[in-house]
Design goal:
The complex is a heterodimer of chains A (552) and B (191).
Chain A lengths: L2 H18 L5 H13 L1 H20 L2 H5 L29 H17 L6 H5 L4 E13 L11 E3 L1 E14 L4 E14 L2 E12 L7 E4 L3 E5 L3 E6 L5 E7 L1 E7 L5 E8 L3 E6 L3 E6 L30 E6 L19 E4 L9 E8 L3 E9 L22 E7 L28 H4 L3 E9 L4 E8 L4 E4 L6 E6 L5 E9 L14 E11 L6 E7 L17 E5 L5
Chain B lengths: L2 E2 L12 H28 L3 H17 L10 H19 L9 H10 L6 H13 L4 H11 L5 H8 L3 H26 L3
Classes of the chains: A alpha+beta (552), B mainly alpha (191).
Chain lengths: 552, 191
């Protein structure tokens, strides 16, 4: 931006700020109008300002206090969300008219549907039936604020527009609901599912748990099972553990069939000529085992684990090692494990390891991934976005002199905003801070490695030479193993790190959608315990790689 | 502890499935489009209470005309067309002295507005990330000023500043956010 533009934008900001705060004088308004009339760039700036203003109106509250992070949120900073807008006049003023407008539309919709909200229903206090025990990127359809844990839900109808919530019912059953889903809590043991997916884990000793749909009643007999209702009301039932009984019913509500379903079985109940049921294949990822397909949440921000590890032990490699996608010949004494939070923990995880010798850095990992090795992004077309299709990204300082914590940063970080050397210091731009992006290129059917350098991420090399790497898909296709050997010289290290060196590192594992195109979530590990979270632009947040002859 | 109430009890008769589907589809699209449409309206009508009224009216018209919405086309684009008409209607039916911008400027702003305003979501996500970079005091300032719980003057009194200095501070914070938001979509790609 030129100084002239900066001056004009600063003047615009002052005028627009006065306008939206209701303190603009007539002359100021007239001047602003003149600028907007004369200059398309001024109008674009005005549009961006108003977008920011509206977004701030929408975010006031939880997001500003917690600076939204799906799972890294500090509960102490989180304010409770507003009550649902159309429920007994509990709309909070902070979200004010925006919620009111949404609520007005919703009430209008209900009115137009002929299902008016009865005053007696609104005035009576429905029973509280469940507590929200987990919330991940979750929002009610009528409330832009994130849903906070520990809120209680009453009897009634709810609709989730994004994310996932876990309810602990008052009979101790656990209910997982993934958006988009519409459901009605009837009792602490009975839920009516109108559309979307639900997974129930219930204990038989606490009584039956029942999920109703338009075509079926599914009674749990102490188990874990999933029920899904599609747009036409068709119902799918799948049992992960134990036994359930599914009864399907005709339009008049009379039962017309029944089936006991055991672990590993699934059925579909559909309404064609009559209501019928038939077996369908059991698939692990049918119910809330994969990350939400929600494009409204920026997946780049969707961290799905609680970063817990500070240190990875980089151990000595054995003398004989084959790079073949099988880690059986590795020294795994420094291996770490990290997994996403439940219910994704059995699907998305990484068992990772690093080793060293005089010539190579070795990176090995077994990654749980329901859509393994599908990265279909074109590295030549958009190299910066290759990680989105599924990847493992390892950041490592290869220079012990840079020390730990690593002081380099990108220049975009908090306290340094006014510093003229902001992000341009030697420790910011060091060639020895290396970002290794590792992925399997489905289009070329080849393992890949790309490199970037410094905290300013310069000097990207898309196709470096001299490294060896293999990806191998799990037999059950629920994950993959990667095994890489990367010469130290490619990482700009004069020589291999010495035993005892402490270097900065962090790992990110990115998972994509089925197509290997859009990112769906990631896991991050190795964090400086003094920092709240890993910031890829700030080296001091990275954890430690301690080089060992072997683990202690 | 917050208690979140369901909006209907089990005594309510179940609505017709077809209507329910239509309602669900409308609410899904409407909630996704909400911020974009409101930003569009507020850009043309900077007085927030007026923008709120127009948004409310627009939401009603959107539902009434939802059957005319062509499935597969852009809901945001359609909603903005409806909103543009509602803005014009509002300007025609309300007193002239309530207008901030003259007709030609409103027309220019509306024409400039890209149909789906694709940056809106990106900017909003970037904003969340940028808020993390503000100091706690700055976030608190934004929270107070945007919560709608008090006027700027009252907030100034509470925090022991003059309204002018508070307003200047708010402007500086907004400018810093604007700059950060402009950068973040690029930064996010470096993950």
């Amino acid at each position: 931006m030129s100084p002239d533009n900066e001056h004009v934008n600063s003047e615009l900001d002052t005028l627009i700020g006065a306008l939206v705060n209701g303190i603009a004088t007539p002359d100021e308004t007239k001047h602003l109008e003149h600028l907007l009339r004369a200059d398309a760039a001024a109008r674009e700036h005005y549009r961006r300002y108003m977008n920011l203003h509206v977004a701030l109106l929408g975010l006031s509250g939880v997001a500003m206090n917690s600076a939204y992070a799906p799972l890294d949120r500090d509960p102490a900073l989180t304010t409770l969300p507003s009550a649902r807008a159309w429920s007994a006049g509990k709309a909070r003023k902070r979200w004010g008219i925006i919620v009111f407008a949404t609520a007005a539309a919703a009430v209008l919709v209900l009115a137009l549907l002929g299902t008016h909200v009865r005053p007696d229903v609104l005035l009576s206090k429905p029973a509280s039936l469940a507590r929200i025990t987990r919330s991940s990127g979750a929002r009610w359809i009528d409330d832009a604020q994130s849903i906070a844990v520990d809120s209680r839900l009453t009897q009634g109808l709810f609709e989730l527009s994004s994310g996932l919530i876990e309810l602990t019912m008052d009979n101790d059953a656990t209910v997982l609901l993934q958006a988009p889903v519409s459901f009605e809590l009837k009792t602490s043991r009975r839920v009516a599912l109108r559309n979307g997916h639900i997974v129930v884990r219930a204990d038989k000793t606490k009584g039956d748990f029942i999920v109703e749909t338009v075509h079926a009643t599914v009674t749990d007999l102490g188990t874990e099972f999933g029920v899904g209702v599609g747009p036409a009301g068709d119902t799918q039932v799948q049992v992960f553990q134990g036994i359930v009984v599914a009864d399907w019913k005709a339009q008049d509500g009379k039962s017309v069939g029944s089936k006991q379903i055991t672990a590993g079985q699934a059925i579909s109940i559909e309404s064609n000529v009559g209501v019928n049921a038939h077996d369908i294949p059991f698939t692990e990822d049918r119910f809330i085992r994969t990350f939400p397909e929600d494009d409204r949440v920026n997946p780049a921000l969707a961290v799905f684990n609680k970063t817990a590890l500070e240190t990875i032990q980089v151990v000595a490699a054995p003398l004989s090692l084959s790079i073949d996608g099988n880690l059986a010949d590795w020294n795994l004494s420094g291996q770490f494990q990290s997994k996403c939070v439940a219910p994704y923990d059995t699907t998305y995880f990484v068992d990772g390891a690093m080793m060293h010798d005089a010539e190579y850095l070795y990176i090995g990992a077994h990654v749980g991934d329901p859509f393994p090795m599908r990265n279909s992004r074109d590295v030549a077309a958009a190299p910066d976005l290759i990680w989105e299709g599924g990847s493992v990204v390892v950041r490592l300082s290869t220079d012990a002199a840079l020390g730990w914590p690593l002081e380099g940063h990108s220049g975009y970080v908090g306290d340094y905003r006014g510093d003229p050397l902001n992000g341009r210091r030697p420790q910011d731009t060091s060639e020895k801070i290396v970002h290794l992006i590792i992925w399997y290129d489905k289009r070329a059917e080849q393992p890949r490695l790309a490199l970037e350098f410094g905290m300013d991420y310069h000097g990207r090399i898309n196709f470096p030479k001299g490294w060896k790497g293999v990806f191998k898909k799990d037999d059950n296709e629920h994950g993959y193993t990667l095994e890489y050997a990367i010469p130290w010289k490619l990482l700009n290290a004069k020589s291999a790190p010495r035993v005892g060196d402490v270097l900065a590192t962090s790992w990110l594992v990115h998972w994509s959608d089925k197509q290997g195109v859009r990112p769906r979530g990631y896991l991050v590990e190795f964090k400086n315990p003094s920092e709240k979270r890993v910031d890829i632009l700030w080296g001091k947040t990275f954890g430690k790689a301690i080089f060992r002859a072997n683990t202690n | 502890m917050t208690v979140i109430e369901g909006h209907r009890s089990q005594q309510m008769p179940p609505p017709d499935l077809q209507d329910l589907r239509l309602h669900d589809e409308f609410m899904r699209l409407y909630s996704q489009a909400y911020l974009s449409v409101f930003a569009f309206i507020h850009t043309l009508v900077p007085v927030k209470s007026d923008a709120d009224d127009i948004m409310q009216q627009t939401s009603m018209v959107l539902w009434q005309k939802f059957s005319q919405f062509e499935k597969g086309s852009s809901f945001v684009h359609w909603a903005q067309q409806v909103a543009r008409f509602e803005v014009l209607t509002f300007r025609r039916t309300h007193a002239r002295d309530r207008h901030v911008f003259s007709d030609d400027v409103v027309e220019l702003l509306a024409s400039d507005h890209s149909a789906d305003n694709p940056l809106m979501e990106e900017e909003r996500v970037a904003l969340i990330e940028c808020l993390k970079r503000m100091t706690p005091d700055e976030r608190e300032l934004l929270n107070r000023c945007y919560s709608g719980e008090a006027e700027l003057k009252q907030i100034a009194e509470k925090v022991g500043r003059t309204p002018t200095s508070l307003y200047k501070w708010l402007n500086r914070v907004r400018q810093a956010l604007m700059q950060c938001v402009g950068r973040r979509p690029l930064e996010a790609r470096r993950t």
